[in-house]
Description:
Layout: H1 2-15, E1 26-33, E2 41-49, E3 52-60, H2 64-81, H3 88-100, E4 109-117, E5 122-128, E6 134-137, E7 140-143, E8 161-165, E9 171-175, H4 177-180, H5 192-201, H6 207-221, E10 231-238
Antiparallel strand pairs: 1-10, 2-3, 3-4, 4-5, 5-8, 6-7, 6-9, 9-10
Amino acid sequence: xxxxxxxxxxMQGALLRPVPGDDFxxxxxxxxxSAREVCGDLYDFLRYGPTRLxxxxxxxxxxxxAAALYGAVAIGILRSLxxxxxxxxxxxxxxxxxxxxxxxxxxxMTFCFATWRKPTRKLRVASAGQTQPFLYRxxxxxxxKLTGFPFGxxxxxxxxxxxxxxxxxxxxxxxxxxxxxxxDPDGNLFGVQRLARLIETHxxxxxxxxxxxxxxxxQEFTRxxxxxDDRTLVVMKVL
Length: 239
């Protein structure tokens, strides 16, 4: 069983795409820390062209191998949609429809997806019940107020889309609730406000350094306690 789990871990790692090396006018990084051998969190990158990138982060209900398999199916469906170059709201609606065709009782998935266009510096983002992403700009960090049902519950769902022109130095942070809900030994949660303040404090760092700092601060808060929920980040910084 242990050998099989390690093999599944390697296969899941191979499914996660490396961060694109193309010049999209952004510095972008992703991190994932699993609570078990295999992970119910996921992230992915979709190249929409030489100057346009799509990226997303998801969290499957539950943990372990069942959640990992559900996530692998979702990644496969997501990549099958990539040639259509759908905007975030359209992509989430179609992804939900296809996942609902394979509905599994008691399972659902939250997801947040964005597209970035280099020439216009325009970010579009929509959420299917995922933890609200952070936006840092002008020295302040706040959560975007996005709404949307998770995948796999209702068949016919539309998703609200938010868009904004970003400036150099602006940062968008997608994160799973494994960070904000990480507990210390007394049961206190790390919380979204603490994450926001850390992003403000360390906004000058590169995207990968910022992601590592956030994960390190969460782990320090838990005083080295066991990771009880997957912790995943996608950090994008405009150059």
